[in-house]
Design brief:
alpha/beta, eight-stranded parallel barrel, globular
């Protein structure tokens, strides 16, 4: 997505695919999102020990797979053997943590778009960005924007791809005050700030809007219809949805 072409970003983005409807950060979850009619999905990407970008949200495999330990302590061939659906379905499955390349092939085939969150990766942040961009070289026709809570990752991706779109994520305005975030976005040309729904007020939206920075919103739980309508009405561009079924009926 071109830096200035923010209008291409829809008002609903599937969160980790659609994580309340299928195992998060899997091909099943992403395909489910597209089958529902979403054009955009968000995924979390980090690298394995052998530097293969793959999908995982947490620092470890413990919560979402039958594996344990840090992401960058396993080679991808071992990661692919893990069951990424067992806790969602409460039974063994053949669902595994996919590579970024597999996801991009699916997104390209479906003619959809992707938000790649660059996950802090225990000292692997720089190689994470480099390996992700290396994979992206073969998918220049896929519409993508990058995001991260790790400021250095955001800065690096913009340094390597100055014309790419990037969102700086902040869970609250404690470490970075609102004006700090605005200054950072303006300095490094981040078109979007993603933040928790608990931070949203009309005043917050207005101050970002005055600086031509758009806001996307996520939540620890699925954003319901009433919340979504209120957010859109006060100027929020995009919300991340764990289960957009009801939102798509509006």
């Amino acid at each position: 997505m071109n830096q200035n072409n923010w209008k291409n970003l829809n008002n609903i983005v599937g969160h980790r695919g659609v994580k309340d409807l299928a195992p998060e950060n899997t091909l099943d979850s992403i395909l489910n999102a597209f089958d529902l009619g979403l054009n955009w999905v968000e995924i979390d990407v980090k690298v394995s020990k052998d530097c293969i970008p793959f999908l995982l949200h947490d620092d470890t495999f413990n919560r979402t797979t039958n594996g344990k330990g840090l992401a960058n302590h396993k080679n991808y061939l071992d990661i692919k053997k893990l069951d990424a659906g067992i806790f969602f379905y409460n039974k063994p499955t053949k669902i595994y943590p996919p590579t970024l390349k597999e996801v991009l092939e699916l997104v390209k085939n479906k003619k959809k778009s992707l938000n790649i969150e660059l996950k802090p990766n225990n000292g692997f942040e720089k190689i994470n960005v480099e390996k992700i961009l290396q994979v992206m070289e073969d998918f220049s026709d896929v519409e993508v924007y990058y995001s991260s809570f790790d400021l250095d990752s955001c800065i690096l991706v913009k340094k390597k791809l100055p014309n790419c779109s990037c969102s700086f994520l902040v869970n609250d305005f404690e470490k970075f005050k609102i004006q700090d975030v605005i200054d950072i976005c303006l300095k490094f040309n981040f078109f979007l700030c993603g933040t928790n729904i608990k931070n949203i007020t009309k005043d917050v939206i207005d101050v970002f809007s005055k600086n031509k920075i758009f806001i996307s919103v996520y939540s620890e739980k699925n954003i319901n219809v009433t919340e979504a309508i209120n957010l859109w009405n006060i100027g929020i561009k995009t919300i991340f949805s764990d289960d957009p079924t009801e939102l798509l009926k509006i």
